[in-house]
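User: I'm preparing a small set of examples for a lab meeting where we compare how different chains pack in three dimensions. I only have the primary sequence for this one, and I'd like the structure in token form so I can line it up with the others. Please keep the answer compact; I'll paste it straight into my notes.
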Amino acid sequence: MATDLHELLRSLRVWDPEVTSLPSFDPATAPATPLELFTTWFAEAVAAGQTEPHTMSLATADAEGRPDVRTVMLHGTDEDGWAFASHSHSRKGGHLSVRPYAALGFYWPVLGRQVRVKGPVTAAPSAEGQADLHARSTGALAAALTGRQSEVLRSLGELARVSEEAWERAQHEPEVPVPSWTLYRLLPDEVEFFQGDERRRHIRFNYRRAGQGWAQELLWP
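Assistant: Understood. Below is the structure token output for the 221-residue chain.
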């Protein structure tokens, strides 16, 4: 029997109380910087059992302004920005070379929370990118060594062969450099924190860069 997508969508529930707890959030108690609040919310998502809380949506645009989005991994956050990595010749790398501005989106449904981050993106020095890569798993290095991200793949057999060779090299040369591997940092202009509410009185709390500090504002849900 064919799936009725419309009926399937209607049957789904958002924030089922069996798996979701909607904590209270008082913006008046928010810290002065978005990095502090993000660190707290991230730790709370981990403690609540959110699966893969470090994954995020990354939105970029090409030279003509056409948007694209994909899920990537957060590699770190500090005063220099929110960090992620990719090959410089990948699709996202190409976008960032011509339009060095991006947006990130985190969604942690176990707490009914979202965090949205947007701002300019810069590439870290090559040495930092290589250090970040070699601090990760053998599998991450093998994937980087495969090195053909976003190119057309002729067959799954070709992928298996190249991947196997990359795994072998990663295991025997754990410090091998991958010149195209790039660590990117997004330095936010704005960071929005969304706390869901069961009566749909959602709280949207926005940090907006203002000079050397941050302005804080509430947004209508």
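A couple of notes for your slides: The longest helix spans residues 156-172. Residues 122 and 185 are 5 Å apart (CA to CA).

User: Perfect, thanks.
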